[in-house]
């Protein structure tokens, strides 16, 4: 994504980061005092341990009730809310479409909360890791809307030795028609070729799984009950049609994505497939008439609703090959995992991305470029579910906390996407693992998870549903958030079996895991 303006706090750490990011750009950095970090007086610059030891009462107030934390009549967090609103006003009045903001943790929390309409008392309802990214879009009323919170997938690269091999042989990377390379994952076009110092990627994946099994053998089936197999960028079975940090943004409504089939290995596969079918002229190059940078899909000849290439014999040929290669990649990994973990008592699972930006269109372009041949005329998730069922693997998907009413794009439908994924899992009698897409602890988000989980009701005997609250952070254990979360878990488990407790006032701390699992009609919190 190209940014028109970069805003930064003038404080040294954020300033240095912004200068590195913005190096070489024509426009200068814009420093805003409203992006400065909160001033915590005596606690500033101290470790938690030192602050707790030297200023126990002040520290306790800061940890348990930051909105009312004060020194000499000054309330830094309440003042931060006013500062955050000032920052939003300065940012939103600046000409341009895409803005980058580099700032600090507390002010970023305030920016998130003010965008959500949350008061200072909800300061710890959100958290952001160092290096984490938050994404906002601006609606037609000029209001900032939170689209993604604390994204960190971009911080987990491939091993260095693999990246070095990709530097030597660039075609090991996924490649789009502009010859832009993506190094989040090795191109599945070379799955079975000895391109990694004499080993194929599948052999490397197999060795890694076997090493994991041998290392944690004593825990498998008891402590470790499920192994989720990474199958693509961000661990999901998909092509990197957009970088993970962009594809995980619920508001990426303008991202059609790019087909990732232009490395020499994918091109060879496409050519061979066309030759087998006797239509060799379709085997050179890739799809035509696509433009992932085009925000309006109706202006592309491939994704156009009426007469677009996606609904022609050539389009069907290309999309069947492209999506078929992805399903084959997933099957190879499931086959390996099934063989390696057989007899250990663990379930294997794979994750499918919840790509809903264009669900209410005919072509579903962002799904097509990610490898899901799902259109108005075709169910693209059923073949994946059938493949998982063949190896008794569980299907994992997100979107459980997202509501259509919060979307900024009328073509998007996270609820529709989830209904289709859940339907495919039910048809194939698959265990289903749900996840939240963003880290939110407000009642609206948690209640949506409860509603979404009911989509799996009426499943076959022997299947199970579990929900994994991901991106957990320490703010979850703040008293107000923990009370809200324990209520949520009780609702998810029908108040039957829930043992976790955290009563900070009485000194009792019994912590559960972040997951709830159903097996037929029984529910419990598990570790």
From TrEMBL:
What protein family does this chain belong to? Belongs to the glycosyl hydrolase 14 family.
Give its E.C. classification number: 3.2.1.2
Annotated signal sequence is: none
Enumerate the Pfam families for this protein. Glyco_hydro_14 (PF01373), His_Phos_1 (PF00300)
| Catalysis: reaction(s) | Hydrolysis of (1->4)-alpha-D-glucosidic linkages in polysaccharides so as to remove successive maltose units from the non-reducing ends of the chains
Protein name, as recorded = Beta-amylase
UniProt keyword terms in alphabetical order: Carbohydrate metabolism, Glycosidase, Hydrolase, Polysaccharide degradation
Q: Is Hydrolase tagged as a keyword?
A: yes
This protein's species is Setaria viridis (Green bristlegrass)
Organism taxonomic ancestry: Eukaryota, Viridiplantae, Streptophyta, Embryophyta, Tracheophyta
At the top level of its lineage, which domain of life is listed? Eukaryota
Known InterPro entries for this protein? Answer: GH (IPR017853), Glyco_hydro_14 (IPR001554), His_Pase_superF_clade-1 (IPR013078), His_PPase_superfam (IPR029033)
């Amino acid at each position: 994504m190209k940014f028109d303006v970069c805003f930064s706090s003038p404080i040294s750490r954020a300033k240095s980061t912004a200068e590195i990011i913005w190096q070489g750009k024509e426009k200068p950095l814009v420093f805003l005092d409203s992006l400065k970090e909160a001033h915590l007086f005596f606690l500033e610059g101290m470790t938690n341990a030192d602050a707790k030891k030297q200023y126990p009462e002040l520290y306790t107030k800061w940890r348990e009730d930051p909105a009312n934390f004060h020194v000499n009549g000054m309330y830094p967090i309440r003042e931060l809310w006013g500062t955050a609103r000032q920052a939003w006003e300065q940012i939103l009045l600046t000409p341009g479409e895409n803005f980058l903001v580099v700032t600090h943790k507390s002010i970023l929390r305030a920016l998130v909360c003010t965008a959500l309409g949350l008061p200072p008392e909800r300061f710890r309802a959100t958290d952001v890791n160092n290096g984490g990214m938050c994404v906002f879009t601006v609606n037609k009323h000029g209001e900032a809307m939170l689209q993604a919170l604390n994204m960190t997938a971009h911080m987990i690269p491939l091993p260095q030795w693999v990246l070095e091999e990709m530097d030597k042989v660039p075609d090991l990377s996924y490649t789009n028609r502009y010859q832009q390379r993506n190094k989040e994952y090795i191109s599945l076009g070379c799955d079975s070729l000895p391109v990694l110092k004499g080993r194929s990627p599948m052999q490397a994946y197999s060795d890694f799984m076997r090493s994991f099994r041998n290392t944690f053998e004593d825990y498998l089936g008891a402590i470790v009950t499920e192994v989720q197999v990474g199958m693509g960028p961000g661990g999901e079975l998909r092509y990197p049609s957009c970088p993970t940090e962009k594809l995980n943004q619920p508001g990426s409504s303008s991202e059609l994505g790019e087909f990732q089939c232009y490395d020499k290995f994918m091109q060879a596969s496409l050519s061979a497939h066309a030759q087998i079918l006797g239509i060799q002229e379709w085997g050179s190059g890739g799809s035509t008439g696509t433009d992932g940078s085009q925000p309006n899909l109706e202006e592309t000849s491939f994704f156009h609703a009426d007469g677009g290439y996606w609904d022609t014999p050539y389009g069907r040929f290309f999309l069947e090959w492209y999506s078929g290669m992805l399903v084959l990649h997933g099957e190879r990994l499931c086959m390996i995992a099934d063989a390696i973990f057989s007899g250990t008592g663990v379930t294997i699972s794979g994750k499918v991305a919840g790509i809903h930006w264009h669900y209410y269109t005919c072509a579903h372009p962002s799904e097509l470029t990610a490898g899901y041949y799902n259109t108005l005329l075709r169910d693209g998730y059923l073949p994946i579910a059938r493949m998982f069922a063949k190896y008794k693997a569980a299907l994992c998907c997100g979107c459980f906390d997202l509501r259509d009413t919060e979307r900024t794009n009328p073509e998007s439908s996270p609820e529709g996407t989830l209904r289709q994924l859940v339907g495919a899992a039910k048809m194939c009698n698959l265990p289903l693992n749900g996840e939240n897409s963003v880290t939110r602890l407000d009642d609206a988000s948690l209640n949506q998870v409860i509603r979404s989980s009911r989509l799996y009701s009426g499943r076959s005997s022997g299947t199970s549903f579990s929900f994994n609250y991901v991106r957990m952070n320490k703010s979850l254990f703040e008293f107000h958030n923990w009370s809200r979360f324990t209520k949520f878990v009780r609702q998810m488990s029908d108040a039957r079996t829930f043992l976790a407790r955290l009563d900070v006032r009485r000194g009792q701390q019994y912590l559960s895991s972040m997951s709830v699992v159903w097996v037929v009609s029984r529910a419990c919190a598990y570790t």
